[in-house]
Amino acid sequence: MNLILHLLVDAAVIFGLAYIMPQVDVKNFGTALLIAVLLGLLNFFVGWIIRFPLNLVTFFLLTGIIRIVVTAILLKLIDKLMDSFTIVGFWPALVIALAVAVAGMLIDRSAPNEVMVESTYEALLGLAKLRIG
Fold it and tell me: Which InterPro entries is this protein grouped with (predicted)?
């Protein structure tokens, strides 16, 4: 479920920024969703190959910045692969990568974790015991 939410939010961020920024052109929301899927797949399969040497050079001190730069590079690669998606220049790709990273961080922070689920379950059990007893 979290993956679907990430893909939809990433597509919405990409589509929204394409509407705001004149340097970015996305044909429709379906294209933005395809871009989000491709970005996720490329980050999973290729991104770590690019990130690891850069993180070694910076002694893993700039991991977040490197992840954003690599995402921008992957967005430019997707731009070259697709005709219905255009980014003019590297700075707009960096802005989109930063926005996608912020949106992903907000989703991850708001998603329920195991402790929240267990505490809610225990609270519901306590309420059930109070009503019964």
Answer: Phage_holin_4_2
